[in-house]
Design brief:
- The protein is α/β, with parallel strands linked by helices.
- The chain has a single domain, classed as Phosphoglycerate mutase-like (Rossmann fold, 3-Layer(aba) Sandwich).
- The protein is built from 7 helices and 5 strands, in the order βααβαβαααβαβ.
- A 5-stranded mixed beta sheet has the order 3-2-4-1-5.
- Helix 2 packs parallel to helix 3 and helix 4 packs across helix 5.
- The chain is globular and about 50 Å long.
- The model has no long low-confidence stretch (mean pLDDT 97).
Length: 185
């Protein structure tokens, strides 16, 4: 049994404002740094064998206190990135709806297969993220691995291993700083 500890990065200013981050390299805000410290404290009694993050600063900043406490180095895997929001990156939903009304409607009608302009689809994210997780599971059989990533990327992992249809993935997005544990057998 391999145990995955899924951790969503701490809060950023863009999270607080409701901006779509995607691949933007937005750092944690003060609340996000406090959440990262709390994550490390809450997992202090756990023996973690490896910590993986995406290549975006907010995941690395979230993982740093945990890595220090566990005496581990953080391993970076770009495939654990958030969904690429393309031209919608950095915008509020109200701005997206007004500037990209047709594209937004198409995406709402078919969220699995329609991407924001210049972005990626939910199914593309699923393929990318699950490939990373399969490699992690192969490298750490029977161990405990923390994955610090992004809301949608973590929801994809949860949906796959909990047997939830991909169409309901949005219901599984964890909050900033939330920890979700999975046993993979």
């Amino acid at each position: 049994m391999t145990r995955l500890i899924l951790i969503r990065h701490g809060e950023t200013d863009w999270n607080a404002e409701g901006r779509w981050q995607g691949h933007a390299d937005v750092p944690l805000n003060s609340r996000g740094h406090a959440q990262a410290e709390e994550i490390a404290r809450s997992l202090a009694g756990e023996k973690i064998d490896a910590i993986y993050v995406s290549d975006l600063r907010r995941t690395e900043q979230t993982a740093e206190p945990l890595a220090r406490a566990q005496g581990l180095e953080v391993r970076v895997d770009q495939r654990l990135r958030e969904i690429d929001q393309g031209e919608w990156q950095g915008l509020l939903i109200s701005e997206i709806q007004s500037r990209y009304a047709d594209e937004f409607r198409q995406r709402r009608e078919n969220p699995l297969e329609v991407a924001p302009p210049g972005g990626e689809t939910a199914l593309q994210v699923r393929e990318r993220v699950l490939a990373a997780v399969q490699d992690i599971l192969s490298a750490h059989p029977g161990q405990t691995v923390a994955i610090v990533s992004h809301g949608f990327a973590l929801a994809v992992i949860r949906a796959y291993f909990q047997g939830v249809p991909i169409g309901k993935v949005w219901e599984l997005v964890p909050k900033n700083g939330e920890i979700v544990e999975l046993e993979i057998g």
